[in-house]
From TrEMBL:
<protein>
    <submittedName>
        <fullName>SDR family oxidoreductase</fullName>
    </submittedName>
</protein>
<feature type="domain" description="NAD-dependent epimerase/dehydratase">
    <location>
        <begin position="3"/>
        <end position="213"/>
    </location>
</feature>
<dbReference type="GO" id="GO:0005737">
    <property type="term" value="C:cytoplasm"/>
</dbReference>
<dbReference type="GO" id="GO:0004029">
    <property type="term" value="F:aldehyde dehydrogenase (NAD+) activity"/>
</dbReference>
<dbReference type="Pfam" id="PF01370">
    <property type="entry name" value="Epimerase"/>
</dbReference>
<dbReference type="InterPro" id="IPR036291">
    <property type="entry name" value="NAD(P)-bd_dom_sf"/>
</dbReference>
<dbReference type="InterPro" id="IPR051783">
    <property type="entry name" value="NAD(P)-dependent_oxidoreduct"/>
</dbReference>
<dbReference type="InterPro" id="IPR001509">
    <property type="entry name" value="Epimerase_deHydtase"/>
</dbReference>
Amino acid sequence: MHVFVTGASGFIGRAVVAELIAGGHTVTGLARSDASASVVKDLGAAVHRGDLDDLDLIREGADAADGVVHLANKHDWAHPELSDQAERASVQVISDTLAESGRPFVLASGLAIPGLGRALTERDLSPAVGPGSPRGGAENLALSYAARGVRVVPVRFAPTVHGEGDHGFISIVARAARQRGACAYPGEGRQHWPAVHRSDAARLVRLGLENAPAGSILHAAAEEGVSVRSIAEALAGRLGVPAISAPAEQLAGDIPFVGRFLSADVPATSTITRDLLGWRPTGPTLLEDIAAGHYDQPSASRP
């Protein structure tokens, strides 16, 4: 299968491209810069230059492929509305391009719906609907195309997709701990974050692309929920700083955007995903990756 991948040079994207190529697929990756293009080429994929604002180029990439994996996101945490707008627009154009073709469309989505009082499952529908909702309501928008001849497969990634080179949430928490000389957790730190190693996440994307029925929602969660306090204590031990409790509102101010997520209890299961596709995570746990030193030093930003 010839697969068009957005976000191909990113932390998750690099693992996905390598997994797809190892699985016998050919890949074309969207690259927004010379640095991104170099990464994509080194992985053995073709390059399609453009970014999430280049909707005509995204349409061209999708139209020329047998399937699409959409991982790119602006991740503008200072202006999330801009990220949400770009996400919805790109998902709209990919869905329109693949309509009535039967081709697969795997898209990254979020695995965090707070306030359920229980673990999230694949049967729980996202409440994000419409352009003004988180991620622009892209998951529900894409799912609406399952009835229009697109094999839509949202993959809800755990808030923490971890591994060497991770520059996401855990890396940001570690950076804040280095700057402040302490690693803080909210209240008693009993909140839970699902986690998955990026190699396991990449394998799930491939399995979903190859085998998941239209409308399947997949959960990339190897661990149902790692306590926020245990994360803080593990980071503190590696960084040589104390782990301390702090009010949730203080964390929200100290670590913009990410701090408020630390106070959310968002456990999630992946039982349905495992049964559907035979996915069995084998990578290191989050605490094992922290213990391995992957968050000791600042990670390089994505190309």
